[in-house]
Amino acid sequence: ELAEIGLVGLGTMGAALALNIAEKGHRIAVWNRTGTVTDAFVAEAGELAARVVPTHSLQALVDAIAPPRAIILMVPAGDAVDQQIAALRPLLGKDDLIIDAGNANFHDTERRSAEAEVQGVSFIGMGVSGGEEGARHGPSIMGGGPRAAWDRVAPILTSIAARHGEVPCATWMGPGGAGHFVKTVHNGIEYADMQMITEVYGLMRDGLGMAAPAIADVFDGWNAGALRSYLVEISGAVARAVDPETGAAMLDVILDAAGQKGTGRWTAIEAQHLAAPVPVIEAAVMARNVSSRLAERQAGQAAFGAGPQPVSLTVEDLEGALMAGKILCYAQGFTMLDAASKTFGWGVPLPECAKVWRAGCIIRSDMLDHMAQALTEDPGRNLILAPTFAALLKQHHGALRKVVAAAALNGHGLPALSAGLAWFDLMRTARGTANMIQGQRDFFGAHGFDRLDGKPVHHGPWGGHA
Ligand code: NDP
């Protein structure tokens, strides 16, 4: 009996995805570069092994799948994907389909899509979120490529995806690199969400003198309210954990230098290319970069003083600040998606992005459900102007202001929350200050400017300097 689908790359994500596919009743053929990994995978698949077809050559993999074939690649992003496409393509026909499910840079996906069109094998670039656990039991899936190709594999993908109520979190976002782009912005928002939580953690630890278990209680409390989300939930669990070796709070033995694989950086870089303001995400990437400069930070504290000082804030202030910061960050992320969608002509359905992130992925939260509703009402409106979120911002921006001000006066760096607040204040200032920039530009570069009164005078009276 031929398999419905194939998969290349039985690493962490590929193995989990293959088991998920088999569990949902689909026969799947698998191949891995290192054959012993394939054998071990089947040996450990238990009763699901009955629906797994192990193969030991790419030709055998292709032969094991019913045409028109669909093959998922779950190998490291970059060269490995190009190598696998090059190896598979000669074995495939024009109705066959290759699906790259790794964390590709969307520029690579755009290129591969264009190459696929020439070479006559369909190509889908698909973002998969939720880590190993998500891949195994229900990831959030963001697809991009030819709509007809997506529709062909959609029944399998929706069957393995996470569910929000009855709605599966597997959605076609548009042609070419749209799916991988949406996944990239998801990861950028993930960086920002994590950073804002980290900033209020710092205020609790260094500003309010709270120990890790008390901080865990606060996160647990927030997770029962409007901030309910996977990231707040796991922050509580992280704060509660105890180091088995020393008995100390786990948080207090973890080195304060954050790792990153680059998707947050891609979001910041693409935002700059698109002139889309995402200061909270940029600040979050910056903060990770600063965190890894441990020796410099130590020298900085020695040179400039004693680090963060006590603050007079309440836990309710912090909760309000986090609420406001989160809304501002997501508003920026959706604006960026909209800008990319228009620039690349993808037609990304913004409400569907909010919906696909409601379950399975790292940034899943209750608030995303309300965001999906607000974007459905009016996808073209900035999220901060949607009535639900405008009301929340009116309620909480005072807390954000208070927290950022107290932090600034007492030496706590809050890059993400303060960047969010600065953006918010710019966004509610009808008469801004860029008239000075325009004056300066005209002064030194004769760049000209528009006038408020609409008169056609395009240069200032800068005399001999102009
Ligand atoms: P792993 O390192 O666990 O697995 C990599 C797999 O790719 C292995 O099966 C490996 O085979 C194979 N492979 C490596 N290089 C090549 C190559 N040149 N040619 C063919 N096969 C190769 O990676 P993950 O499963 O963690 O990640 C896979 C993709 O999924 C990445 O793009 C990652 O960014 C993305 N991703 C990962 C998440 C995670 O939480 N881990 C979450 C979401 C996306 P072999 O056994 O021979 O080494």
UniProtKB/TrEMBL annotation:
Its annotated pathway reads: Carbohydrate degradation; pentose phosphate pathway; D-ribulose 5-phosphate from D-glucose 6-phosphate (oxidative stage): step 3/3
Positions with a binding annotation for substrate: 103, 129-131, 186-187, 191, 261, 288, 441, 447
GO process terms (BP): D-gluconate metabolic process; pentose-phosphate shunt
Superkingdom, natural source: Bacteria
The record's Pfam families line, in alphabetical order, gives: 6PGD, NAD_binding_2
Q: What class of enzyme is it?
A: oxidoreductase
Question: Which residues of this UniProt protein bind NADP(+)?
Answer: 9-14, 32-34, 75-77, 103
| Gene3D superfamilies (alphabetical) | 6-Phosphogluconate Dehydrogenase, domain 3 (1.20.5.320), N-(1-d-carboxylethyl)-l-norvaline Dehydrogenase, domain 2 (1.10.1040.10), NAD(P)-binding Rossmann-like Domain (3.40.50.720)
Q: Which reaction does it catalyse?
A: 6-phospho-D-gluconate + NADP(+) = D-ribulose 5-phosphate + CO2 + NADPH
**SMART domains (UniProt xref):** 6PGD
Q: What family does the Swiss-Prot or TrEMBL record give for this protein? A: Belongs to the 6-phosphogluconate dehydrogenase family.
**What interactions and quaternary structure are annotated?**
Homodimer.
Functionally, this protein is described as follows:
Catalyzes the oxidative decarboxylation of 6-phosphogluconate to ribulose 5-phosphate and CO(2), with concomitant reduction of NADP to NADPH.
Q: What is this protein called?
A: 6-phosphogluconate dehydrogenase, decarboxylating
Protein species of origin: Fuscibacter oryzae
* Name of the gene: gndA
